[in-house]
Amino acid sequence: MPAKVAKASGASPSLETREVMDIRQAADYLGISSDSLYKYASENTIPAFKLGNRWRFKRSLLNTWMESESEVQHIGARQKKPVARISGR
Predict the structure, then answer these.
(1) Where do the structural domains in the chain lie, given as residue ranges?
(2) I want to staple 41 with a disulfide (CB 3.0 to 4.6 A). Which of 4, 48, 81, 84 is the partner?
């Protein structure tokens, strides 16, 4: 007879299936500290909204934001001009 796996009541879905996350879950998802994420949200650097007095983050908006940020950084890296070197000294 297979063993039954106990499931805690009120267990939340995994981060992969959760669309709206609190600050701790979103920080874990992004791989940064909660303090850093709180700062970014307060400065409107990252897409977030407040539900009552608590920050919430939509996973789909975070993914879109990460894509756009990586494209900007990638384009910026390609456009760097080489530094002229002075020879003969």
Answers:
(1) 20-78
(2) 48
